[in-house]
């Protein structure tokens, strides 16, 4: 086995590959996050093996399932912890087993779509492992301006990437940090946003962290109308964009604590908007006015 080590949003993970597999070919988006092997125990350790047979899921209850850019995913509870399966149209059923603390896993990948499958499984595992340590993986676009990162969230197709592009075009010095899955880490009276190896269809893999300036949930509208949300409304607004295994009550409780801390730290808004420059100007004005 050959180990590849990474540091993402300050969290160390390790992936062990067998002969014939390599991080360079299977995880190219992870290259900016490569790090030296740490003498301390990684937060997450994943051992990768070639798929020799699909898992027997007969009789197992499906805890969660989803269809998205990560393929068709199903999560099952097993005696030792959890079983995660990922299937794409182009390949076999890839799967991983992992413990209930989301710190150790075995991933079994087939020949087709192996890179996408492994990256997807690592994203799901990483997103759970960081929650007890103040981390939150958000489905969002992140733009940095004036040293602060602004997050745009919303359902798929609501224009997160479009709104991020409006900021990049309207404000000199702005830059895209991540276009799909940035990581928020809560500290004492502050929160930072970090890039990740997962950025959807936009190849933006930056190993950077910036203070969180604010969060805005977008929805398409014929008019631009910005609404500031109180902390309760903000919590309810952000929660659907978080990656978490809802069947794990302890994990969900910790996620709620992380979100409460975020809502207490930065402004959160709901923005009905058009895809125009005026929308970017209104959004920036409100976030700047309300930022601490």
Provide the helix percentage. 10-25%
Structural class, by secondary structure, is alpha+beta
For the terminal residues, how far apart are their CA atoms? 48 Å
Number of DSSP-assigned strands: 17
Q: Give the oligomer, counting copies of the same chain as homo and different chains as hetero.
A: single chain
Helix count equals: 6
Largest sheet: 9 strands, mixed
What percent of residues are in strands? Answer: 35-45%
Cα-atom radius of gyration: 19 Å
Contiguous uncertain segments of 5+ residues: none
- Overall geometry comes to globular
What is the typical, i.e. mean, pLDDT?
93
Succession of helices and strands? EEHEEEEEEHEEEHEEEEEHHEH
Your description of this structure?
This protein is α+β, with helices and mostly antiparallel strands and 292 residues long. It is built from 6 helices and 17 strands. The protein has helices at residues 23-26, 114-129, 160-170, 231-238, 249-265, 277-290, and strands at residues 2-8, 11-17, 44-50, 62-68, 71-78, 81-87, 93-98, 104-109, 135-137, 140-145, 148-153, 175-178, 183-187, 190-194, 209-220, 225-228, 268-273. The strands form 2 sheets. Strands 9, 10, 11, 12, 13, 14, 15, 16 and 17 form a 9-stranded mixed β-sheet that branches. It has an 8-stranded mixed β-sheet with strand order 1-2-3-8-7-6-5-4, with helices on one face. Helix 3 (160-170) packs across helix 6 (277-290) and helix 4 packs across helix 5 (249-265). The termini are far apart.
